[in-house]
Structures are given as C-alpha cells and as structure tokens.
Amino acid sequence: xxxxxxxxxxxxxxxxxxxxxxxxxxxxxxxxxxxxxxxxxxxxxxxxxxxxxxxxxxxxxxxxxxxxxxxxxxxxxxxxxxxxxxxxxxxxxxxxxxxxxxxxxxxxxxxxxxxxxxxxxxxxxxxxxxxxxxxxxxxxxxxxxxxxxxxxxxxxxxxxxxxxxxxxxxxxxxxxxxxxxxxxxxxxxxxxxxxxxxxxxxxxxxxxxxxxxxxxxxxxxxxxxxxxxxxxxxxxxxxxxxxxxxxxxxxxxxxxxxxxxxxxxxxxxxxxxxxxxxxxxxxxxxxxxxxxxxxxxxxxxxxxxxxxxxxxxxxxxxxxxxxxxxxxxxxxxxxxxxxxxxxxxxxxxxxxxxxxxxxxxxxxxxxxxxxxxxxxxxxxxxxxxxxxxxxxxxxxxxxxxxxxxxxxxxxxxxxxxxxxxxxxxxxxxxxxxxxxx
Length: 437
What we know:
The chain has helices at residues 4-14, 42-69, 77-86, 96-133, 141-157, 163-212, 218-234, 241-260, 263-272, 279-297, 304-320, 327-355, 365-396, 404-436, and strands at 15-18, 21-24, 33-37. The protein is mostly helical and 437 residues long. It has a 3-stranded antiparallel beta sheet. The longest helix is centred in the middle third of the chain and has 50 residues, at 163-212. The two termini are 84 Å apart. Pfam families: DUF349. It comes from Hymenobacter metallilatus.
C-alpha cells in the first residue's frame, strides 16, 4: 500500500490545484485538463486522484501480465487499445506517459505476433488448397471423400489470414472441393446408368432363355442357348452381388430346364467340337494363324478406331482358318486373343480418358501414362469383384448332370475375367515402360 506522503508527492508531480479544481499537467500531445474538484481539502483531493491512478495502473499491469503469459496474444489487442485511449480521458493524477508507452509497446508486439500467425495460417491454408487440388484426377472416391473431410476440418481450425486474401483463398479451396464432388457425382451417375444397361442386357437374355426352355426344336434350341450363354459371358459390367446372383439363378433355371431334357444333345455337341486335322493342313493353318497374330500384335500402333475395326476383321478371319494340331494350337490362340484383347481394352480405356476433365497442367508422356495406370488399376478392381461373384456361383453348383453346361459356362467366364485382368496388367506394364522411357 502506497503511503499518503508518496501519493501526495506523485499527485503534485503530475497535477495541481487551481481554485477549487484539480488539474492534470499536459502529457504527450494532450493539454492540461481538469480531472475533478476539491472536496474536503486540497491535499486530500490530490491523494484521492493519485489513488485513482494506482487503480488504473493496476489494470494496465494486469493486462500486460496476461499478454505475457498468453499463447493467444492477439485476443488482447482491443483491450490494450482501449486502455491506451483512456490515458487521455481517465480522471486521475500520475505517470500516464509511461503507461502509454508500455501499452504502445504491447500493441506493437501483439501486431507482430498477429502478422506472424497470419503468415503461418496463410501457408497452412495454401497447403490445404494444394492437397484438395491434388485430388483433381483421383478416381478413388471413398478415399478422396475422407481426405476432403479431413481437409475441411483443418481449414476450419486454421486461424485468420489478411482480410484481402480471405475471399480468394475460400473460393480456391471450395472450388477444389466442388470440382471433386462434381466429378464423383458424374461418375456415380454414369455408373448407375451403366448398371441399368447391364441389368437390362441380363434381363433380355433371361427372357429369351425362358422363351426357349420348353422348345422341342432340340438341335436349333441348343445352338441358340449356347449363343445366349456366350452373350451372357460377354456382358461387360458389374452389378450388386445380390442382384447379380438373382439374375444368374433365373437365367440358369431356364437353361437347366431345357438341358435336363436334352442331356444327350449336350454330349453330342461336345463331341462335334472335337477334330483330328491332317498334318499338312495343320501346318498351313498354323502359318496363316501366325500371320494373323503378327498383324494383331501390331494394331496398338494404329489409330484406335481403325485398330478396333481391324481386330474384329481379324477375329472373323481366324474363325475361317482350319484347326491346328497339338499344343501349338493353344499357344498361337493365346497370342492372338491377347493381342486383340489389348486393342479392345485400350479402346475402352481411351474412351474413359476422353470423358475425364482436362487438367490445367501441361500433359506429359509420364503424366498421361500415370493417369492410365491409375484407371486400369481401378478397372481391375471391378473385374475382380465380378469374378468373385462368378466364383461364388460356381461353388454353389451341385454335381447334377444338368448343371454341367452351367459349370462349363461359369468356368469359361471366370477364365475370361482372368484374361481381362491379365490384359490390363500387360497394358499397365507397357505404360510403366513409357514412364521410364
């Protein structure tokens, strides 16, 4: 507690009495001003206003201590400015000038801290924007959505930046978020449309099968049903597992109904597919097929539309070539079908790539190859899902002779997916070679 004598001395140092009024001497840019009136006596009044200054000084000291100890100094800026304004109006006698300078120092220090934090916040927000924009080409929608959720939380938790930057930063961040979800929406809509097309294709084959299941035109109906089985295998697309299982069960039931009545024809049809070619004819046929393989393998270097058209022509020509004997038959066939598959898979890939949004970044051979590798890996994932459904259906078949045709068909379709996956992996290897080159 300050003594009365000390308070009186401080009051006389910074103030004086004129008539019945107590005055504060000029300070800084402020002129002398009246702070009160003499009540009991001149000395008592001077001591009173010196005590009021002690109260004001205590407020300043308390605020400066809080600023010193706080991690969020910026929250005290307005309080410091408020006390600084009171220096020119607070009714008291004392060393207002020293308090003014201390508050000014605190103000400047807070502003430096605020600017430093805003620079840090700016760097953080630019980093968040870049992470959001990096999702421009991803097709992993689930991971991308989770990533954007985390980025949004980070954005909300990041402190303020300079006011003139706020709108541009917000627009850029939201633009990246909106672009991702617009692509996701478009992809899901396209996937739904594709699913509907696939569903309609399966239903059409079911209706055709059910229309034939009671036919007495055994030989012709057998041929037609085998065509339907092949068409079923060639449908390119996926459905939810339960829906796919239900459709398959209905399709299989119609075929089982017919083939239970036609077991002998199934066996005779299988026998008709066997052959024993002559040696000379086999050698001629092998040469012709090798020539077709060579041309098919060169198709990837031609314009894609032309390559697809020619691949179909080569497949038609292959069917007209006679049989080849022994293991070489399987080997040359594998080479031919892989070459054709690459053309068709490449055509589907390029169709998909054309529908993707164009990146603002200049395209390089390496970046284009990377995008195609990513897309092919996603397609492989869908192929494996469909293959899993087929394997599950195969496992549910019992050993009834009536199921033999379906077992053969399922195994063939599973092998077809093996081939599709292998073809995509071959293309991935090709694109990775482009990245290296």
